[in-house]
Structure formats: C-alpha cells, structure tokens
Prior knowledge:
Elements: E1 2-8, E2 12-19, E3 24-25, E4 30-33, H1 40-53, E5 60-64, E6 68-69, E7 72-73, H2 88-96, E8 100-104, H3 105-116, E9 125-131, E10 135-141, E11 144-148, E12 154-155, E13 158-159, H4 161-164, H5 166-171, H6 176-194, E14 198-202, H7 209-216, E15 221-224, H8 231-242
Parallel strand pairs: 1-5, 5-8, 9-14, 14-15
Antiparallel strand pairs: 1-2, 2-3, 2-4, 6-7, 9-10, 10-11, 12-13
Amino acid sequence: MKILGIDIGGSALKGAPVDTTTGRLLAERFRVETPTVVTPAAMAKIVGLIARHFNWQGPIGIGFPGVVQDSRIFTSANLHQRFIGCDGGKLFATATGCKVTLGNDAAAAALAEMRFGAGKGFQGKALLLTLGTGIGSSLCYRGIVVPTELGHLPIKGKSAERFVSSSARKRRELSWEEWGTELGEYVQTLERILWPELIIIGGGVSAKSRKFFKFVKPHAKMVPAKFLNEAGIVGAALSVEQDKKLQAPTSKLP
Ligand code: BGC
C-alpha cells in the first residue's frame, strides 16, 4: 500500500509517501518549518499543503506529539494548547480531503522500528525513546506497540523531558558527557520499573549516538533507531493499516 506519512514535530512538519510493504519513502520528504507555535487551524493548513505537494488523494497517517485517543488530542506539551480536546483526525481529514489516521508520534516511530528497523524480528520487551523537542516513548512486546508518556516522569516537580530531551541539552548548554550522564539516570529509573530487554533511541540526536551512548550505561542493550529521524513518517503511514476506523473529511470543521 502507498500511504502518505506525516510527522508533526515541535519545530517542523515532515511528510512523504511510504511503501508500507518495505518501509521505504517513495519520494523525497517535504519539510515545513514552524518557527512559532501555530494554532490547530494554521497547522491544518500546513498539513493540507503537504498533501497538495504530493498531489495526494489516498489515506494519510499522522503522528502527533501528544496523547491521542480515538483521534482526539488530550495533551499538547510542546505545541499550541488549543489542540487539547480537539478531534485532530477530523481536523486534518477536512484540511486534506483525505481519510486520516491520527496517533502518537513516538508510537508511530516504534511501529516503524519494530517492523523494519532496529527492532525488526525482536520478540522480547523493547522500549523506544525519541529524544527531540520532548521525549516520546512506547513499549513494544511481540509486535504490539503501547504508547506511553514516560517523558513526563516527574523529576524535581517537572517533566523529565525538560531536563533530558535533545532540546534541553541545547537549552541548558550541557556537554555530551553531562547530558548523557543525566539521560543515563533517567533511563536507569525507567529500567527499574519496565525492565526492557532492548532500548531503541530515536529522534534527530540518535545520529550522534557515538557522542553520548557511552555515558548512559543502561542494563539493557541500547541501539540507535535505524530510521533515525524518519521513523515518524514511516510509522505514521504504517499506523493507517492498523486503523479500522479512518477519519473521513467532513464539511464542517470540528
Ligand atoms: C509528548 C509525547 C510525545 C513526545 C515526543 C511529549 O511532550 O507528551 O506525546 O510523544 O513529546 O514528541
């Protein structure tokens, strides 16, 4: 199947058509920067622009950086607060005129990594963490992906992602060693509770794993994501095949 995958991130949206039988991008990805926090209506316009860029009329899978249940958005830690309570599936279906599956961005990345990437063929318990503007997380077991929100584990009264996401490293001007060591404490806390056998680290920073993996020191085997930053696009497309109830466009905005 050919499905358009779109990854909504804290600072940019990226999309590309994906061959879901191979996990390959069928065209060069199209990226739109969002330097300011945009409203749901403005975001819907950008999603519409991406669909039009590819002249797309088929199904679309979209990963969103927040809790999504049954296409409704429940949290939006790093995007506009007006997303909370919004039926994102309907919003984006209406903006594109296509059927849409909306899910969590890290759950999408986990689908891609477990099907075609660093977790391919792995049947044990895997934890995927994406380190970007926030921290995304999912637990995977025997082909099932369970979205989680481990980036919001409280540290000193704040979400862990405020300290150990990739953007926190830049904002706090930490060296790779300082950041890697704090990330290690966080990862070890997660390990105490979840005991994954494999940890997959995604997000743009996973391309620099040589610089910080040595400081993390997990109990489990830890590997960078194979798709690096593209897992979100591929996984969003894959999520469509699992969706029994795609959101169709409506004439009225929700
Ligand atoms: C959100 C998650 C998301 C992660 C990565 C967090 O702030 O709560 O849902 O997966 O950022 O984008």
